[in-house]
Amino acid sequence: MSTIGTGYDLSVTTFSPDGRVFQIEYATKAVDNSGTVIGVRCKDGVVLGVEKLISSKMLLEGSNRRIHAINRHAGMALAGLAADGRQIVTRARTEAANYLSFYGEDVPIKELSNRVAHYSHLCTLYWWLRPFGSSSIIGGYDMDGPQLYTIDPSGVAYRYYGAAIGKGRQAAKTEIEKLRLAQMTCREGVMAVAKIIYGVHDEAKDKSFELEMSWVCDESNREHQRIPTDLLMEAKAMARDAQEDDLDAF
Amino acid sequence: TTIMAVQFDGGVVLGADSRTSTGSYVANRVSDKIVPIHDFIWTCRSGSAADTQAVADYVKYYVDAHSMELGRLPRVRTVANLMRKICYNNKDNLMAGLIVGGWDPYEGGQVYEIPLGGTIMRQKFALGGSGSSYIYGLVDSYYREGMTREECEIFVKKSISHAMARDGSSGGVIRITTIQSTGVQRQCILGSDVCMAMRWNHDYFYHGLNQRLKDG
């Protein structure tokens, strides 16, 4: 476990002697305890996948969405505290709409990520606010091609080929690094993401989960949308089979 | 004032007269009504000089920051949108008729007209200012699709010189700005050459037209 910042962790406006802001690190822990969220940038688009842990059997399937559309060409997948994530989504949508109204063109994904990061960072500057307890992965397609960004509670945005946040991120990152993303199409990416999420899900510790995926690619006409149902079924089936094969191998 | 802009394949030609008048007194007979907003995007101003200068300055400021953040050239559409936002939201207090003309690497040469109320209209060519009303007929008869850069320049010079001849609020010199991907060139047509422009290169103009009609 990490160190405990005795006395220096009471406020987000306090640095510790070794230059850390503990409140932000604690906020990141909230993200690390939530279900895994993965994003991969394939050669013709971006695929996002979420391991949505189901807390109760009574929950309607498809409720409590973790992937949201920001505008036609960009989507955001959230990890961490759900309510905080909702706030970030609303803000991202407002930023995208304002940009379009002001400049007459769709917000570039880089700019959108910068705005979201700016907003997240804002909440780490004042003692009367707390940092957001959620990270987001933004996947979008603009003039510069498909792009993938991650924004964490400290307010930094990084651009990635493949990213993972949440519980199973270490294992997921290892799997993603094995993929040859530059040669993969989004269809293949969907299969890979499903397989990885099924792979990192810990059956022992967590209860059941629901796989939620979306993409924005050439096939979807550069629009962010949920994976078509038949493709999703196919991906889930393949991923489940892959899991069983792995088990048999032992 | 007479201002005008014409789009051609690969750029635009912007033209304006140079008279600023306060009533019947000509305050400036050599004013520059074509202002740069960005490297390849310029604007023709008509209406209140103070209002249009203020709007142009604001838009220049916004577009500077915008293109810096984008890391690439701004769209002409973006500049026009910013102009019309300001013109529309302050329509009660402004008297500004603007024509935005420029080139960007995404859509090529474009002309946008933003008249008094804050409408935005993309057009192949646009006229503005008090002198424009006298040359609508001329412009409608001379304009053809697919003119070259030289033909557009002659077209603009001819039209503005005719407007300057008939409109009391237009006069002085003709200023022409041509914007292409290769760069921006400014010209100034003085004195007697303005009269010449009214008859200018008539044959060249019609020769080009006849050639096109022959080629089909």
Automatic annotation (TrEMBL), chain A:
The 20S proteasome core is composed of 28 subunits that are arranged in four stacked rings, resulting in a barrel-shaped structure. The two end rings are each formed by seven alpha subunits, and the two central rings are each formed by seven beta subunits. Coiled coil: none annotated. It comes from the Eukaryota. Its main location: cytoplasm. Keywords: Cytoplasm, Nucleus, Proteasome. The proteasome is a multicatalytic proteinase complex which is characterized by its ability to cleave peptides with Arg, Phe, Tyr, Leu, and Glu adjacent to the leaving group at neutral or slightly basic pH. Residues 8-30 form the Proteasome alpha-type subunits domain. Belongs to the peptidase T1A family. This is Proteasome subunit alpha type. It is found in: Cytoplasm; Nucleus. The keyword Cytoplasm applies. Pfam families: Proteasome (PF00227), Proteasome_A_N (PF10584).
Automatic annotation (TrEMBL), chain B:
The keyword Cytoplasm applies. It catalyses: Cleavage of peptide bonds with very broad specificity. PROSITE patterns: PROTEASOME_BETA_1 (PS00854), PROTEASOME_BETA_2 (PS51476). Keywords: Cytoplasm, Hydrolase, Nucleus, Protease, Proteasome, Threonine protease. It is found in: Cytoplasm; Nucleus. Gene3D superfamilies: Glutamine Phosphoribosylpyrophosphate, subunit 1, domain 1. Its main location: cytoplasm. Pfam families: Proteasome (PF00227). Component of the proteasome, a multicatalytic proteinase complex which is characterized by its ability to cleave peptides with Arg, Phe, Tyr, Leu, and Glu adjacent to the leaving group at neutral or slightly basic pH. The proteasome has an ATP-dependent proteolytic activity. Component of the proteasome complex. Belongs to the peptidase T1B family. This is Proteasome subunit beta. It comes from Sphagnum jensenii.
